[in-house]
Amino acid sequence: MTKQGSQVEIGIDTGGTFTDVACRDAGGAVRRTKIPSTPKDPAEAILAALAHARDAWGIAPGAIRRFVHGTTVATNAVLERKGARTALLTTEGFRDVLEIGRHNRKDEELYQVKLSPNTPVFLAPARRRIGIRERIGADGSVVTPLDEAGLLRAVDALAAEGVEAIAIAFLFSFLNPVHEERAAALIAARHPGIALSLSSVVDPQFREYERTAVTAFDGYVKPVLARYLARTDARLRAAGLGCGFSVIHSRGGVTGTETAALRPVRLFLSGPAGGVIGGQSVAAAAGLDAAITLDIGGTSSDIALIARGKPLIASHGWIDGFAVRVPMVDVNSIGAGGGSIAWLDRAGGLHVGPRSAGADPGPACYGKGGEEPTVTDASLVLGYLDPDGFAGGRIRLDAGRAHRAIETRIARPMGLSVAEAALGIHRVVNAQMAEGIRFVSIKRGHDPRRFALVPLGGGGGLHATPLARALGLARVVVPQAPGVLSALGLLAAPIEHERATGFPARLADAPLDALRAAFARLDAECARLMAADGAEGLQRTVTHLADICYVGQSHHLEVAVDLAAADPRAALYAAFLDAHRQVYGHAVERPARIVNLRCVHQARAGGDAALSFPNDAPPRPSASRPIIVEGRTAPLPAVIIDRASLGPGTSIAGPAIIEQSDTTTLVEPGWRASVGEGGLLFLDRDTEARP
Amino acid sequence: MNAPTSAARTAEERLAALRREIDPVTLEVVRHRLQGIADEMQLTQVNASFSSAVKEAADAAASLFLPDGTVLAQSASIPFHLGTLIPAVGHVLRRFPRETMREGDIYFLNDPYHGGSHTPDIVIAMPIFHRGGMIGISASVSHHNDLGGMVPGSLPPNATEIFQEGLRVPPQLYQRDGALNETLRDILMLNVRTPETLEGDINGQIGACHIGARRLRELAEEHGTEGLVRLSAGLIAYAEARTRAELARIPEGTWRAEDFLDNDGVELDKRVRIAVAVTIKDGTMHVDYTGTSPQTKGPINAVPSAAQAAAYFAVRCIGDPTIPSNGGCFRPVRLTLPEGSLVNPRPPAPVNARTGTVKRLSTTILSALRPALPDRLTAPWAALTLVCRYIGTTDAGERFVVGDHFVGGAGAGLDRDGVDVIATDMGNTWSLPVETIELEAPVRVRENAIRPDSGGAGRHRGGNGLVREFEVLSAEMQFVHRGERHFEPARGVEGGQDGARSRTTIIRTDGSTEDVPSKAMLRLKRGDRVRIETAAGAGWGDPALRDPAAIAADIEAGKVSAEAAARLYGQRGSG
């Protein structure tokens, strides 16, 4: 037990309903389980996972080599408004920057007369936003010295009010952080218990609203994360875990808990990042370097792109509708998922979402009191889902309720049959997802047709072939275990750290010495973070990047920097023109400028054996049931197959339904499913099928 | 609700007939596709832009049209631009009938009297062909840095004729059969101050049109040209029937409102009247601007396309958001634009500063309708964009021209306070970061804050305006200030009070102060300070009925001072 155990790695992904656990041994064999999540204290489920590994799999906690966690604690603190009591110090005269934002109203209120506020004021309401006398000029010089006495008076008052975190965002601190640093030192000396977030550290780039907001978010979640990570670490150690645990951050890299607690605003996508990295591994295993991952949840679906073998990283992301300017895997949510409710507008037009039945009451077919028809109800009516086999038999579906909900709310008012209405629901939700996927691809200059679709989570398999058809995608790759792909992604993620700095300079005459020196500083900072996470002895990949735009433009593009090139500036310029052409469709030879420099260090952390998924139950025999698909008037008899019964090399023509405990895959007519060497399921257009 | 009128019944019957003719699911699927195409066009042009108005403020829009000029899909972007693209494409088609259009053509216009709205807004339109037939037009409009004329940026606040506002181009071929019209290009580039930026941004617009073309062709390939035509017609008929049904739910009658613009920037002591009579009848809306002031000497005139955009915006606001945004929404709308008036000027009246006018036109229409739709509409917004420009030479000898703009507060509603400092009505531009302004112009911003005590008091408070104060760091500077609501406030409703007026003060180095009369070109010297306070939204309902907790919260947040609270609401909130 211990001999094998010493190579065991465990990934734990905390979701809203279930905490997914994946365990990989040195040979690559994967064991998996789902444990009910414990939203009040997510650590309960993590400890339960550790106990499960010990009791059910015989793995002693002390023998676990890596223990990686995807956490939603930071995200939930924001969504539930349960972050720390936070104050914001700004330059005098600018305390309302956080509330004023950029003046724009929400896109969805474009044609609305009644408006709602569009900035995260909850992070620090006006009484906890204090202007401090100080000023750095636009050239980085000190215009007004920091009023230290005034600062301390303000901070003392805040401390008396019970403030747990202070965010400091002074104007032009990205050019000269001296006042932010001095303020932090003074506060730390006087009130060591207050967590501090400095805009010159969190996000040293221009545009004061964005920098202030991300710094305030950092402060708001910092004490919450610090407590959660420290307590969980202590409890895991008490339970015998010897290796300590690490978490995945929004860029899809792994970091130790101590470092993570210092940069908590980088954990907002800790949940989805695991899935994206899992998708990246699946694409790699399938020999593909371009893939779109699609995670269809209850209320929304997450879309991400893998291009040239790597997940696309966005320079900012979103939480609860607010922009957060730190690099993240480019995960885009659209408001359509399995629980999305189908409804008719006043004129009888069919819409799906954004309202969702969620997990409670859930779709009508859950029989938990939901009366409104959802996408899942439609899937059941169309024959795609087995009422007794859903979610590995955990939830029994009531086909009668699904039928009634669609009949009364959609079919009858529209004058359609229930089957037609159910198909309509699928077509509308697929159209929304297809546009979402297209928009995400195009936004980054990629033609989706060159990409494979990787459905992950439980819901993607039913929509994969219709979406691939609508988008003209090359193929679909269904992972062996889509339900725990996020947890597996945690194990595949590298240890990674990123540092950036503003570097305003014209590209043509950027001083090379200064450029090298800036990268050397960033490298040193990254190296320190990597060392803190135990990556010293590991093979490391170092990437140097620059944000470049044309002089006069303000949306920049990230381009790789080759400091070893004969003429690094010329190489950088050429790479920028390529990137501009790729993303915007055109490029002209005009002067460009550098905005930021960025450095990323990565080290492979986990084992690299190919994954295998031992069966834990004998395969069920094949069966048949009628299903309804787009473009056919009558139901078609579809073969129903247990995925466990499909060995490598097997091939099945649609219409077919492939079932496994964590997902159901629809193979439409005209598509063919085949199993690859590693056990991946490929769906391709069936060239042999008659139209 | 009222008993269904005959108009409502007619609209319902039309919808029922449509549902029989065209599969409603396919219609919804195609609607998503078309929306996706328009949004992708918009994304492309904004991302690739050099113009500061576009790159920071997204001052651009994109749409797809049918070959007859009916708009088929609009990007989620600035309503004003979406509205003006419609007559612009109409003008292109009038000058170049569709039979004469060829694959590889690109059309260009910016002349306000030929479908544009002011000279910096360039419209690019591209006919889309599939299997030899024309299936649509993709079009884009974008605000460019400069089109020449008497001042950089081509928005002279003291213009008295359009010839001062820069180069005017009526509908012209920018490209024929894929070949660039070098004559037009050369003339353009010679007449503008920043030619390389202009060309880059035009290319961005063309790139967006190409994307629209490619994707519409894909749709035609899927559904067949005939199928696409049928679906497009269906979507437009659907939007029309739904808009008529919505209009039929509003009590029939004629609803009136008036408002006053400060001045035209030239005749500073003359208020400019906006009068609207909105008649709702038989599922249609008629907007009559009779009674509006004659065209002005200064540049605040709005050409018909701009005045029309205001009415289009209003009809979208009172409709249901699930109605697809296309030409069908606008078929039930009729306008009366008196010739020679502010909303239908005769050339060569100057028009560059029409933004303030159009914003107020839309607000005035909505104010007129508010009594008919009290739960949907609000007390008046400040509905202003203060447009500014810093112009001069730095101490190091570099010329600078930097634009900036500010908004005011939103009006209070039946059930909520107005939002402080937010872009309302037909624009939705983003403000420029203070750090951007200071990096580009020799100024130091001393304050950027919510303006306390400015929102109209009421049971629900109007949104506060903005305070912005800056100091001049160069020896001399010209400062263009195109303000609004300095003299006429947003009027409170149902017993609510007016929002505060705008106020801008120059504080000279010797301590003397001067008030800026709404629109002016100021000469500033090193050390001078300019303090801008923008107008606020109007209040709704009797202030005596305001929830004491809301009063206390306002005081705590510094949005209302204790003194003002005592004066406006009594002592109830301060305890």
3D structure, described in words:
The complex is a heterodimer of chains A (691) and B (575). Helices cover 31% and strands 26% of the residues of chain A. Chain A contains 17 helices and 35 strands. The N and C termini of chain A lie far apart (55 Å). In chain A, strands 13, 14, 15, 20, 23, 24, 31, 34 and 35 form a nine-stranded mixed sheet that branches. Chain B folds into two domains: 6-244, no CATH class; 378-575, no CATH class. Chain B is 31% helix and 23% strand. Chain B contains eleven helices and 20 strands. In chain B, a hairpin with a 2-residue loop joins strand 6 and strand 7. In chain B, helix 2 (24-47) runs antiparallel to helix 6 (195-248) and helix 4 packs across helix 7 (304-318). The interface between A and B is large, with 69 and 86 residues.
What would you say the CATH architecture of the largest domain in chain A is? Answer: 3-Layer(aba) Sandwich
What is the overall number of helices of chain B? 11
> Order of strands across the biggest sheet of chain B?
2-1-5-4-3-6-7
SS field, number of helical segments of chain A: 17
Oligomeric state, counting identical vs distinct chains: heterodimer
Ends of chain B: how far apart? 42 Å
Straight-line distance between termini of chain A = 55 Å
Q: Mind telling me the C-alpha Rg of chain A?
A: 26 Å
Strand content range of chain A: 25-35%
Give the radius of gyration of chain B: 24 Å
* Average pLDDT metric of chain B: 92
Structural domain tally of chain A: 5
Q: What would the average pLDDT of chain A be, to the nearest integer?
A: 91
Largest sheet of chain A: 9 strands, mixed
Q: Residue ranges of chain B: pLDDT <50 for 5 or more in a row?
A: none
Helix content of chain B: 25-40%
Uncertain parts of chain A: 1-5
Quantity of strands of chain A, as a count:
35
